[in-house]
Write a structure and sequence with these properties.
3 domains; mainly alpha; Rossmann fold; DNA Cyclobutane Dipyrimidine Photolyase, subunit A, domain 3; 21 helices; Serine Threonine Protein Phosphatase 5, Tetratricopeptide repeat; 5-stranded parallel sheet; about 550 residues
């Protein structure tokens, strides 16, 4: 049968209504999906992808291919173990074109600068073969590149809040007929900072069966990628459209009503709490942000969920998610290499093993090792905050987040780490570094009560490392932050420290950096070797899942 167009689908483009498939000719076109080892790490990253991240992508791709075949759509599926697999996406497109001789290749733009450039280079080769490459803009998102560029051109600084308000106005989301925001306020974040006073009663996550496809994928990973970090013994991820809708239903029904109040809270043994875990099906494109937001808004309109919960969730989806993608494409491919604070420390080995010396770090890392997941406050205020104030190299941190989270895609992971989490962009994403001492963690969790370190001390034996690192961070950057109004309080507090206390803080911080391996210079140990050597059963009881 002759081939019309080769339709190339990437693993994070599993949307039947997406740009690549919107005008498919089922009789003549062929859809290409390829599992390749070359996409197991980010640009320049000498790391392997978490087993659950790899399994989720491969299982979702295989299920999607089966769904296409059920529509009588021709699918060319290249498995990871196929003997002729070139193990690169560009290589598989070239191989498919050589065999099928399509008149054109149609694809949606990748979510990564590196891949986009690879395919642009490929277009020259295809042109020589009388084959046209069409790269379409990703219609999954609400805001196009040109629309974000127009927004950016009117701003001296790129802040999420005015962007978020603009998107709400344009699409009429949580808006009153007179053009005012629902409830009279645009942002209800001040209502979403409650902490638990006692152990919360958290609903269990929906159960997704380990079907034959998931089981087969897991066996392939354990056989062919055994050195990859993470575990596969428990499964929580939706990998089909039907499962993604079930996950959405479950969140709206059982967790959204409480999401707002406890959005920033943490509790030992409860990594999921009232969070949606919908970033995975959203980033795989099994869910569309429009339908997710519509369901949340309906929950408010019907009285099922309060406004602070719905507005907080909507802000994550149409505000932060869209904004951070705009930043990625606006700032260019060099953005990932920025290091404004000149941090060059090593990422501690316990980030790969989970065997951290602090209770809060162990609690944040345990679900990462087990599931490739932790919620946004654990990511920002525990894990990334530790790296920020300790002075860990931003690229090492970014590579770790890309490797270890199931929802990691370069367009979202890079600006979230380089910009939001580590202030390595010098203030493009955030007007201040999200630096905090152990007091923040104590206020928002019960972790400090069970920790070997004292959150009441900032230097000396047994002092909380977050306290020592935080004050040392301010001391190291005192001059740099002197003119930042949002850092004024912290800088002013430095004036209260006498020379002896300053020295004691710096000594304690230096000691912890050496103890944790942040300032080590031994023979090179790769992250894979580190994770394999230290990956053991974690002493943390994770609840809420099968």
């Amino acid at each position: 049968m002759p081939t019309g167009c080769l339709r190339v689908l990437l693993g994070d483009q599993l949307d039947r209504e997406g740009a690549t498939l919107r005008d498919i000719d089922a009789e003549h076109d062929v859809v290409l999906l390829a599992e390749v080892v070359g996409e197991a790490s980010g640009e320049g990253a000498d790391i392997r992808s978490h087993k659950q991240r790899t399994a989720a992508f491969l299982a979702a791709m295989r299920h999607f291919a089966a769904a296409l075949r059920s529509e009588a759509i021709r699918v060319r599926y290249v498995a990871l173990t196929d003997s002729e697999n070139t193990q690169t996406l560009v290589g598989e497109v070239r191989r498919a074109c050589a065999e099928l001789q399509p008149a054109c290749v149609v694809m949606t733009e990748p979510g990564e600068w590196r891949l986009l450039n690879d395919f642009k280079v490929l277009s020259g080769y295809l042109k020589q073969q009388a084959c046209h490459l069409e790269i379409r803009e990703d219609t999954h998102f609400l805001v196009s590149h040109s629309e974000f560029a127009r927004f950016a051109s009117t701003r001296k600084t790129l802040q999420m809040e005015p962007f978020y308000r603009q998107v709400r106005k344009r699409f009429g989301i949580l808006m009153q007929p007179d053009g005012a925001p629902e409830g009279g306020q645009w942002n209800l974040d001040h209502d979403n900072r409650r902490a638990f006073k006692q152990a919360p009663k958290v609903p269990r996550l929906p159960h997704f069966e380990r079907d034959e496809i998931i089981q087969e994928v897991c066996e392939i990973i354990e056989t062919h990628l055994p050195e990859n970090p993470g575990k596969l013994d428990r499964w929580i991820w939706p990998v089909t459209r039907a499962q993604a809708l079930t996950a959405l239903d479950d969140f709206i029904e059982h967790r959204l009503p409480f999401f707002g109040d406890f959005e920033d809270a943490m509790w030992s043994g409860e990594p999921f709490l009232y969070h949606s875990l919908l970033s995975v099906p959203l980033n795989l494109k099994l869910l569309n942000p429009r339908e997710v937001v519509e369901r949340a808004v309906d929950a408010y309109r019907t009285g099922h969920a309060p406004l602070n919960a719905v507005e907080g969730f909507v802000r994550q989806v149409i505000g932060w998610r869209e904004f951070i993608r705009g930043i990625y494409w606006h700032e260019g491919p060099g953005y990932r290499h920025r290091n404004h604070l000149e941090a060059h420390g090593h990422l501690p080995d316990f980030f790969w093993s989970g065997e951290a010396p602090l209770e809060c770090l162990r609690e944040a890392l345990a679900p990462v090792i087990a599931f490739g997941y932790s919620h946004h406050i654990q990511r920002l205020m525990v894990l990334a905050n530790f790296c920020l104030i300790a002075g860990v190299d931003p690229r090492a941190v970014g590579d770790w987040f890309f490797a270890m989270y199931v929802d990691a895609v370069d367009w979202v992971t890079t600006p979230n780490t380089i910009g939001m989490a580590l202030y390595a962009d010098g203030g493009v994403v955030g007007s201040k570094p999200y630096a905090a001492s152990g007091k923040y963690i104590q206020r928002m969790s019960n972790h400090c009560a069970n920790c070997a370190f004292s959150v009441n001390h900032r230097h000396g034996a047994g002092a909380c490392p977050y306290n020592a690192f935080y004050w040392d961070f301010l001391l190291r950057h005192e001059t740099r932050f002197a003119g930042n109004p949002r850092m004024a309080l912290g800088v002013r507090n430095l004036a209260k420290l006498d020379p002896q206390e300053r020295q004691a803080i710096q000594r304690t911080a230096t000691h912890y950096r050496q103890t944790f391996g942040i300032t080590r210079d031994p023979e090179h140990v790769t992250p894979q070797e580190s994770s394999t050597r230290h990956l053991k059963a974690l002493p943390v009881n994770i609840k809420g899942c099968a």
